[in-house]
Specification:
- There is one protein chain.
- The chain is mainly alpha-helical.
- The protein has one domain.
- 48% of the residues lie in helices and 5% in strands.
- The protein is built from five helices and two strands; from the N terminus they run E-E-H-H-H-H-H.
- A two-stranded antiparallel ribbon has the order 1-2.
- A hairpin with a 5-residue loop joins strand 1 and strand 2.
Length: 84
Amino acid sequence: MNMEFDESEIDNSFRLCSGKTLKNLKDLKRYVKEMPDEVYNYHVTGDKNDFAFWLKNCLELGQLAKSLNGVKTKRNFIKKILEA
């Protein structure tokens, strides 16, 4: 069995709890202002920040991810994302 794969086959997209899929930072910037509170609150809690995890581990945007880890409010999250 051949376990090799083409890196172009890797899907680094982020599937939100609402079913919407974000493929990159540009998609997140476009969607963040209209993101329902319940979607934001599902992905960002006191224990986790799924967006920061995705940005760091899938999109290799570690500095941005680090700056988002301390952000708890949607308003501040939007500000940080739009500044990126």
